[in-house]
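Help wanted!
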Amino acid sequence: MEALGLLQWCLDGLLGLGLLWLAWRALACSDLFKAVVLFIAFGLLMALAWVRLEAPDIALAEAAIGAGLTGALLLSALARLRAIQANGTIVIPAQQAAKVQLSRWLAGTILLSAAIGLGYAITSLPPEAAGLSAEVTANLAASGVGNPVTAVLLNFRAYDTLLEMAVLLLALLAVWSLDGLPTAEAAAGPVLDTLARLLTPVLILVAAYLLWVGADAPGGAFQAGSVLGAAGVLLLLAGWRLQPSLAQLPLRLALVAGSGTFVVIALLTLLSTGRLLAFPPAQAGTLILILEAVATVSIGVTLAALFLAAPPGHKEKL
Amino acid sequence: MTASDYLAALLLISGAVFFLAGTLGLLRFPDVYTRLHALTKADNVGLGLVVIGLAIQAESLAAVGKLLLIWLLVLLAGASVSYLVARGALHKGIRLWKR
Amino acid sequence: MQTFYFALALFLLLNLFAGMWRVLRGPSPADRMLAAQLFGTTAVAVLLLLAQASASPALRDVALLFALLAAVTAVAFVRRAWPEEGGERDGE
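Answered by r_m:
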């Protein structure tokens, strides 16, 4: 057992130090593309760190969103930045040397005090903190699902998830209101076309699988939704665009469906039981499944729409 | 350790050797195209041997199916991405290394 | 057997960090992206080994996600962050 403990310690130590080093290199890098690739690698290692911390649900979400979708978004943003810089110049006013020094000292002091505060807080934690796992386990049977993470996200703290869905929708509205330029996609060659045709059904199936299995094993709506978003991103990259007939009302309905269903169910529970989002134990499982299914579709469409960065059918205003 | 354990260990070690070869190739080869070549060795053979070694030890047939699915997807993605990157590199004018 | 899995996982992780040099060095964007692809595949192998070592089948799902999303990121690189110069030759 001695060798096993040592190996695990080495693995975790390497991961931790590697994460710190990657974060520093990604931020201190002057070449933006290199920084983006380092950030993608950081997301990968972060997912491994979550796995070592025995949080597979978060690892799933980090792999899908942190490493995959955010990487694609950053690369796309980099391309737009280059396009803007080629057409016109972005002038950043030169800062005086004294001001830069002052801001560095200020930032350093704040960071140092925050680090000391955090260190004190962590070392003063009791070594064996039970947290809330006892309460969650006690009430798991009444929650309608077997996975404690899903129970917390969609039953005990469903209010937070409602707000998260609203935040995602707001983010999309903010991006859409920025009047971004839709990119004209060059024609995809046969290999990219075939890859998209083969991978998209697999991605959709994996999303459905994660949604289904999230009731009793790691998985759930956010993870499934981000895989669905990745399918949308892949289609967009391969040159596919939504038909104009679907791009107006049906798209908006799909986007609003997640938070809308949440609000409707919240109102229903408020009217029937007098408490917000209190699911009756007999129907809890079904309600959670409905909420998760609609949330998955909403999250997937929102993430793909974020990647497109402009409402479909948007014409560049001259 | 039973015989299947030894076999799995052998397969896993060979897979790890191919991963090492892939990394060495990525670091030492002279241009993008040869590095792509090294990368796909790690993808195909390295991961394949690791998957077979783990499949011997897997707890159910469903787990074996999942392992094989992961390997097939990595194969598909690796092959397509190698083609796309090599074609892009050729169009951008990156020259092939000549001895 | 568990010790063996962890030892291999550590070895593969060291490989991953060795590959970082290629990301830092370049010289072309394709080299950096290639290295990221290798990281993805190595992470898949590490996750599969850890899934067997700690008997958590959920980690295989994480590995599946890695494999799929590495492909999407690479396609995003080829199509967006690395545009073709001049006219596009389709049907290549």
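OP: Thanks! One thing I noticed: The interface with chain A takes residues 73, 76-77, 80, 83-84, 87 of chain B (CB under 8 Å).
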